[in-house]
Write a structure and sequence with these properties.
Blueprint (H helix, E strand, L loop, with lengths): L4 E4 L5 H12 L3 E6 L3 H14 L5 E5 L5 H15 L4 E4 L14 H25 L3 E6 L12 H21 L3 E8 L10 H9 L10 H12 L7 E4 L7
Parallel strand pairs: 1-2, 1-4, 2-3, 4-5, 5-6, 6-7
Helix pairs in contact: 3-4, 4-5
The structure holds NADP nicotinamide-adenine-dinucleotide phosphate.
Amino acid sequence: MISKNVLITGAVKRIGKEISEHLASKGFNIALHYNSSKKEALELQAKLINSYPLQKFKIFHCDLSNEFELEQFIDKVMNCFERLDVLVNNASVFDPGIIRETDVNLYNQQMDVNLKAPFILSRDFVLNNKKGLIINFLDTRISGYSSSHAAYCISKVGLAHLTKMMALECGPNIRVNGIAPGASLPPEGKGQDYLDNLAKKTPMKIPGGLKPILLSVDYVLSNGNLTGQILYCDGGEQLL
Ligand SMILES: NC(=O)c1ccc[n+]([C@@H]2O[C@H](COP(=O)([O-])OP(=O)(O)OC[C@H]3O[C@@H](n4cnc5c(N)ncnc54)[C@H](OP(=O)(O)O)[C@@H]3O)[C@@H](O)[C@H]2O)c1
């Protein structure tokens, strides 16, 4: 079997770490991207090498809000992996603020990390690889109009649009799909009750956790005809 190579952004904590461990268990070689979490990156790399000694796990630093680092990033990864089969645009910032509270810095940070970086990384992925799959991490909030995280939501709406636009431009050799979780892990400083309270309002009533996300990743990977689709993993929250 030919082994496959994946680049995962924000790969060493929370949802990104779960995806990394999941794809490692499926035989992928992984380019593990991090920004501030070097210690966690080294720990995860060591753990994966120990568990899967025949696979390749390399860590890469990049501040995705830094244009210079962003423009160089895929080249750095390609120097090490030669070919990438999958790009998972998972890294994100999630800062609250209604429109009236949003200053230019907050706005730019959400747009830079959540939209501009996936745009440029996806462009470079396509320019450097003949075939492949891009998975963009969105958010169930793209279906609503709450402005509690206005700039964040607009950045994810843009990324959802990019998902479909790119699927149209880049088929048949490159597939592009989105995964839109609902509240799956509590933000830093909040606990399980935060998730439980949010989930009570959804059709499924209890939080789905990480499993629906990993099942969706598997589905997108295995369904070779799927492109331009957004899979909601939110217990029906997008219907509210
Ligand atoms: N958690 C949820 O319940 C939930 C719900 C809906 C949607 N989502 C989406 O699912 C994805 C993963 O969620 P999450 O909660 O696990 O994400 P997260 O913890 O908020 O962020 C993931 C990673 O993004 C990286 N990152 C932030 N700023 C960066 C920058 N300037 N440059 C490079 N990397 C940067 C961080 O890496 P370092 O730690 O290395 O700095 C961080 O570990 C996100 O796209 C999110 O929007 C999550």
